[in-house]
Amino acid sequence: MDKVISCMYKKPNATTRLICFPWAGGGSIFFANWGRLFDESVEVYSVRLAGRESRTQEPFAQNMDQIVDEVSQSLLPHLQEKPFAFFGHSMGSFTSFATALRLKEKYGLEPVHLFVSGVSAPHSKTRYPIQRRSDMSDEYFLQWMAGSGGTPVEVLQNKEAAKLFIPPLKADVRVLESFIYEKPAAHVLSCGLTCFDGASDNPHDLEAWKDLTSGDFNIYKLPGGHFYLKEPANQKQLVSHVTKYLENYEMTYL
Question: 94-97 contacts: CB < 8 A, separation 24 or more?
């Protein structure tokens, strides 16, 4: 579609769009391929951040506001056409939430549902104090990521892949280190919010996400670690859950 948004499986008759936000260091391809997993009622958009894939010549984003500004402007022409939902994994959970907040505050637009995965709520006490990891040497940085479960195994086993992976990953970690969000005095969203997590991943404060919305709230844990969502059986479960919520919205509001 454009440099920021990818849609590999176009579905002009879809009733809802699912917009997916990548994890730290990630590109758009994984979620863009989700388009083949959903039926014709859901069209999948995948966010491509600066500095990766077709945007390798562009500088990485320096902070969350920069990401949100770019993504919001790219999505805006498409968001009034039909209902939309957000899905984010790990860092993508924060970027999807921050984008949803910007769209509501500035344009009066809100996703019908926010699906977050693999991370504590942005204001959770478990995030603070935020230690700076992005200044580590590449060797120690990878060791830390491996210990935290935040790096795909295939990257750790391939030195050449690691060299390509480290720059965007460090850039994204730097964004996360500067992203501070305090618990709001009142709910800032009204859409439903669902948390997914790997049952064997490091513990996350998922309950704190409930502080951010007045909509319905649910938590699901699926087998596996931080990248549980790469398992075909788990992808099937995720697609089933997401489809159910979007169908319920259609029956209630459309």
Answer: 94/64, 94/119, 94/122, 94/176, 94/179, 95/21, 95/47, 95/64, 95/67, 95/68, 95/71, 96/19, 96/21, 97/122, 97/212
Annotated catalytic residue 226: yes
Contact present, 58 and 76 (Cβ < 8 Å): no
Domain ranges of the chain: 5-130+182-253
The pLDDT tens digits of the residues spanning 77-118 come to 999 889 999 999 999 999 999 999 999 999 999 999 999 999
Whole-model pTM above 0.85?
yes
Task: Say which of 89, 113, 204, 226 is annotated catalytic.
Answer: 226
Candidates 6, 90, 117, 124; catalytic one = 90
Query: What is the architecture, at CATH level 2, of domain 5-130+182-253?
Result: 3-Layer(aba) Sandwich (3.40)
Q: Is 113 tagged catalytic? A: no
